Amino acid sequence: MSTTVPPTEAVILEETGPEHAGRGSSALGYLGSKAGGAAISLAMVILLGFFAFKILPGDPVARIARERQMSADQVAQLREQLGLNKPLLEQFWVYLGNVFTLNFGESYVYKRSVASLIGEYFWNTILLTGVSAVIAIALGLWLGQLAGWRHGSRFDKLTSGVSLVLWSVPTFWLALILLMIFGGTLHWFPTGGMRSPDAPGGLAGVGDVAAHMVLPVITMVAVVYAQYVMVMRASVIEEMNADYITTARAKGLREDLVRTRHVVPNALLPTVTLVFMHLGGLIAGAVTVEAVFSWPGLGKLTFEALSGPDLPLLQGTFVVFSAIIIVMNLIADLVYRQLDPRVRRS
C-alpha cells in the first residue's frame, strides 16, 4: 500500500544553474557564520573567566595563611609566588597564555596543575552526565510522543503534570530529599562518593560504581526529562494536524504506523537542537548534584574551588564548561541544518 511521503522525506527537485552553484557557498557561509559566532562567544567566556573571578569575595592567600599560621613575610612571599602581587594587566596576559596552552596554572589548594585535575575528574563527570542524558532523552521523547498522540487523555495530563512538577523542583532540594530517604533512612543506596573503600577493582567494581550512580542519576534525569516531554508533545500535536497525516489515514494506515512512520520522525526535528544544547548544559549543571552526592567530578571540583577561592581551578573549570556548551550549540545548529531541508533552502 502506498503512503504519503512526509515533508522531511520529500524529494527535492534537482537544482540547476546559478542556484545549484550557490548551494555550496551557502553551506560554507552558514558554517562560517555559526563558527564565527561560537568563536566570539568563546572569546567572551575567556575574558569573563578572568575578570569575574577577580571580583569574588575572599583572599586565597589570607585563607592559606590562616590554615598554616604564616608570618607577614611568608604571606608576602606566597603572594609573590602565586603571582597575585603583579598588576592586573600582567596577570591577565599570564592567564591568556595559560588558556591558549591549556595550562591554566597550578591549583592553590591541590598543589597540582589545573589541567591534570580537570583531566582526572572530567571522565567521572562524563560518566554521570552521559548516563543521565541517555535516560532523560529516551524517557522524555518516549513519554512526549505518547502524551502528544493522546493529548487530552488521563495519560497526557498525568505525564505532563508530573513532568512539570519535577521540572520546577530545585535540583539541590530533590537531591537532598533522595539522599535522606533512600540513602539515610532506607539505606538502599550509598550516600556519597563513586566507590566504596572496600570495593574491588576492575570489572568486579562496576556494580559498586553503578550503585553509587543511582541517586545522582535519578536526580539529574528527574529535573531534565520534562523539557523533552513538553517539546516532543507539542511537536506531535502540531504534526497531527498536517495534511499528509490526514492523507495517510485516508489511505487506511493503522494509527500506530501513522504515528511511528510519519508523525514521530517529523516531530523529532525541533528536539534535535534541544538535545544538543542541553547536553552541554547538563554537564555544566552537574555542580549541584556532584556536590550533594560527593561525586568526584568537575562539578564537585568547582564547588570546592569556590570556597578558596582557588582562582586557577575556577578559571579552568569555567572555561571547560563554557566551551562544552558552545561546541554543543554549534553542533546542534549544523545537525539541524542537515536534517531539515527547509533550513538548507533558506
Topology, please?
Layout: H1 17-54, H2 60-68, H3 72-81, H4 88-100, H5 114-149, H6 154-168, H7 171-185, H8 206-222, H9 225-240, H10 243-250, H11 255-267, H12 269-284, H13 286-293, H14 298-306, H15 311-339, H16 341-345
Structure overview:
This protein has a domain at 120-345: Orthogonal Bundle (MetI-like fold), CATH 1.10.3720.10. 74% of the residues lie in helices and 0% in strands. The protein has 16 helices and no strands. Helix 5 (114-149) runs antiparallel to helix 12 and helix 8 packs across helix 13. It is globular. The two termini are 34 Å apart.
Keywords:
single chain; 346 residues; mainly alpha; 16 helices; disordered N terminus
Task: From the 3D structure, determine the CATH topology of the domain at 120-345.
Answer: MetI-like fold
Which CATH C-level class of the domain at 120-345 is it?
Answer: Mainly Alpha
What's the end-to-end separation, in Å? 34 Å
Report the principal-axis shape: globular
Helix percentage range: over 70%
Number of helices: 16
Radius of gyration: 25 Å
CATH architect. name of the domain at 120-345:
Orthogonal Bundle
